[in-house]
Amino acid sequence: MVNKSNWLVKQTVEEVASQACDFIVKAAQEAIQERGVFKIVLFGGRTPEHIHSLLVKEPCDWQNWHFYLGDERCLPVDDSERNSQMIQNTLLDKIDAPEGNIHFIPSELGAEEAAKAYDAIVKTAMPFDVVLLGMGEDGHTASLFPNHKHPLDERVHAIFESPKPPSDRVSLSVHTLSQNRTLLTIVTGQGKYNAVQQWRNGVSLPVSKITSLGKSFVILDNAAWSGEE
Predict the structure, then answer these.
(1) Could you tell me the pTM of the whole model?
(2) Strand, coil or helix: what is 167?
(3) Are 106 and 157 spatial neighbours (Cβ–Cβ below 8 Å)?
(4) Are the C-beta atoms of residues 180 and 217 closer than 8 Å to each other?
(5) Which of 29, 93, 165, 206 has its CA 20 to 30 A from that of 79?
(6) Considering only CA atoms, which of 153, 38, 181 is closest in space to residue 97?
(7) Is residue 59 exposed (0-12), middle (13-18) or buried (19+ Cβ within 10 Å)?
(8) Helix (H) or strand (E) holding 182
(9) pLDDT tens, 13-41?
(10) What is the pLDDT of residues 35-80, one digit of tens each?
(11) Under a CB-based contact definition with an 8 Å cutoff, are residues 200 and 6 in contact?
(12) Which CATH class is domain 4-165+186-201?
């Protein structure tokens, strides 16, 4: 069974985002005070937009934040379906972060070349201060899907035949995502209920394999926790 003391259930998506924002801001303050830099891994989808809308209102030391991605789709740089585009539009365009602190996955190069290029970046970035993850209805996280096998020694995977389009992607590995001081897994929506139940009952899912060097929290809304809107 998963340690339920790290599961935080909120009533709404907005409350989930507020809790995540609080954790992130506190972790950033501590990291910059102790090490002079804050390194965060972001994820795609709709839920992060709520978190970003709160973060941009915070008086953060953006000059010392470094941004990384958990995964990316192999699409043209300006494609609206890329995680980087959503993050750029909802967060990075609204804060004063140096361009050199933004570390996107160059997935326009193709999965294999992009994975090689990003490996060199994350190799020197680990451990991350915060890794933010989401979860799909099948229990996948980043672009790590059920029943897909990857070399255990890879930090970054080239993903082919993704069950969700586009088929080609790039994803940080279980090992790399687990190199964090704080892990925040954000789960919202009634559609996630079955996967949440499997996770709580010890079923091995991609999302359940990610661990932390420090603190780990799963922040859910009531719909994902109880299956009721």
Answers:
(1) 0.95
(2) coil
(3) no
(4) no
(5) 206
(6) 38
(7) exposed
(8) strand 180-187
(9) 999 999 999 999 999 999 999 999 999 99
(10) 999 999 999 988 899 999 999 999 999 999 999 999 999 999 999 9
(11) no
(12) alpha beta
